[in-house]
Amino acid sequence: MQDDKDLTPSEVLDLLLYRYREKLSDVHVRQTEACLSLFQFDPESVEQWTEAEREHVRTCPTGYCQRMLALSWRGEHPPLAHLSQFARGEYPYPKAMQFHLEHDRCQRCRVVVHVLKTLRTVAATVAVVYGEGLLRQPEEAAAFAEPRAPVYLRQTSEDGKLIVTVVETDPPEHELKVYVEAPGCGEGGGRVRVTLAGESATLERELELEKTEFGWEAEASFGKFEEAVARLGEDWVVVAVLLEPEG
Ligand SMILES: [Zn+2]
Ligand SMILES: [Zn+2]
Fold first, then answer.
1. Quick one: which ligand is closest to 86's CA?
2. So what CATH class is 120-243?
3. Which among 103, 126, 130 is positioned nearest to 114, based on CA atoms?
4. Which range, of 17-21, 88-92, 98-102, 185-189, averages the lowest pLDDT?
5. Of 210, 172, 209, which is closest to residue 192 (Cα–Cα)?
6. Which ligand is nearest to the CA of 237?
7. Separation of 235 CA from ligand 2 center, angstroms?
8. Which ligand lies nearest the alpha carbon of 72?
9. How close is the Cα of 50 to the center of ligand 1, in Å?
10. Which residues lie at CB < 5 A from ion ligand 1?
11. How much of the chain, in percent, has pLDDT values that exceed 90?
12. What phi and psi, each to the nearest 5 degrees, are found at residue 92?
């Protein structure tokens, strides 16, 4: 073994280049003739892959294409539809997703997948809310029991059984609140688990649904809006899971 201080500048350079190449080969796997080109991995293009292209990515012999797909999620997370497909074990590019979750250790997507996966068996339904954080005025505000502050985000589950609304309330309270309506809830009532998963933190509450004249509802405050949003970090997402009553 050579001592570091005996290395000439050119040997140091060689060593650095060697280590750099090692690192690259760790990240990049070999591109084949049939592999998709770089621009095809940006989020809009991914949705436009032909059947033949999708089949290639599924079976890419060197794994290059799924790796590139995973790298494209470093700027922007995989769409929620992809996360939920993965949680159901139906995602066609599981290696790409595993790379994002395990190698890139994306905490936010890990929480979403975990919630969707572990609660899938017990959940009556799931609603996932995600937006760019722009306030918009609600068209459906009248549906609520009382007039409410600007709606931040609102989402109905695919089966219409659960409606989740994320609200930034007016000052001076100025809270981050989540309202849940559960038209799909049976006479026995039920509970809703609400998970807010961001890049820096996860906030979670389990709520008991209460019967009002409008049906089954629940709400939770996640504290001061700005503090909650700062804790959560970028690209936070809300996952609400309707749980059937026990027993
Ligand atoms: Zn390929
Ligand atoms: Zn992610």
1. 2
2. mainly beta
3. 126
4. 17-21
5. 209
6. 2
7. 9
8. 2
9. 14
10. 35, 60, 64-65
11. 38
12. -70, -15
- In the reported structure, the alpha carbon of residue 19 is separated from the centroid of ligand 2 by a whole-number distance in angstroms of 28
SS3 for the chain is CCCHHHCCHHHHHHHHHHHHHHHHHHHCCCCCCCCCCHHHHCHHHHCCCCHHHHHHHHHCCCCHHHHHHHHHCCCCCCCHHHHHHHHCCCCCCHHHHHHHHHHCCCHHHHHHHHHHHHHCCCEEEEEEECCCCCCCCCCCHHHCCCCCCCEEEEEECCCCCCEEEEEECCCCCCEEEEEEECCCCCCCCCEEEEEEECCCCEEEEEEECEEECCEEEEEEEEEEHHHHHHHHCCCCEEEEEEECCCC
**Residues around ligand 2, an ion, CB closer than 5 A:** 77, 106, 109
- Residues 200-230: tens digit of each pLDDT: 999 999 999 999 988 999 999 999 988 998 8
pLDDT tens figures, 12-42? 766 666 665 555 555 557 889 999 999 999 8
CA of 228 to the centre of ligand 2 (A): 19
